């Protein structure tokens, strides 16, 4: 299996962002490692689901842990990480979107590329394993664990891992996810601090998630459109099809969650 053009032609310094020394790494070697060790990802997801099942059983007859201080630092850490990812990912995206036929360029061609963008995209993939800790806090604090939460975490790791394996051009849109998480984890940190936050903020965050997923569906649809036109597109079939299905499921679940949580009918019931 050939490595993508992005992996072969990565400039350390380009006109849109300068990569720091620590951001320069062996991209081809890392991609190869991901491809040869996909079983690790499946094992992590399996262990995650296993831990959820037995964690809920273990906490069933135990008092809830408070964990206020650890939760505050946890969310602040993830918020800061997401902000950095956003700032490092935006310059390359803006540069590529400034070109003619920008949608095709970004989705199917996506050159030029930079070490800084690649490095933080890789860290974002790895952060999806770390974010499983969100579920641990929910279980230990005996909060309600909805299917949307654990399915979203497990499937997101799957998509990100596969996307990095094929080093997809659209992976450079990772900053969109980081941007959403910047607000999301900041919101969770403030809630953990017992700061009263208007319900409209929570509603706006869910709306932001839906917008992100709608963008993902647009990318999948645009890829299929370009392929139907016979235009060369280096997005991999597995990523487009399976990723599109998962994002579609996410979108339905988030819209349903939005309606259940914020619809007028639901508000009347609560009154």
Automatic annotation (TrEMBL):
Keywords: Fatty acid biosynthesis, Fatty acid metabolism, Lipid biosynthesis, Lipid metabolism, Membrane, Transferase, Transmembrane, Transmembrane helix. Its EC number is 2.3.1.199. It catalyses: a very-long-chain acyl-CoA + malonyl-CoA + H(+) = a very-long-chain 3-oxoacyl-CoA + CO2 + CoA. One of its GO terms (cellular component) is endoplasmic reticulum membrane. The chain crosses the membrane at residues 39-59, 71-90, 119-140, 173-190, 210-228, 240-259. Coiled coil: none annotated. The keyword Membrane applies. One of its GO terms (biological process) is fatty acid elongation, polyunsaturated fatty acid. One of its GO terms (molecular function) is fatty acid elongase activity. It comes from the Eukaryota. It is found in: Membrane. Its main location: membrane. It is a multi-pass membrane protein. It holds the Pfam family ELO. Belongs to the ELO family. PANTHER family: ELONGATION OF VERY LONG CHAIN FATTY ACIDS PROTEIN 6, FATTY ACID ACYL TRANSFERASE-RELATED. This is Elongation of very long chain fatty acids protein. The lineage of its organism: Eukaryota, Metazoa, Ecdysozoa, Arthropoda, Hexapoda.
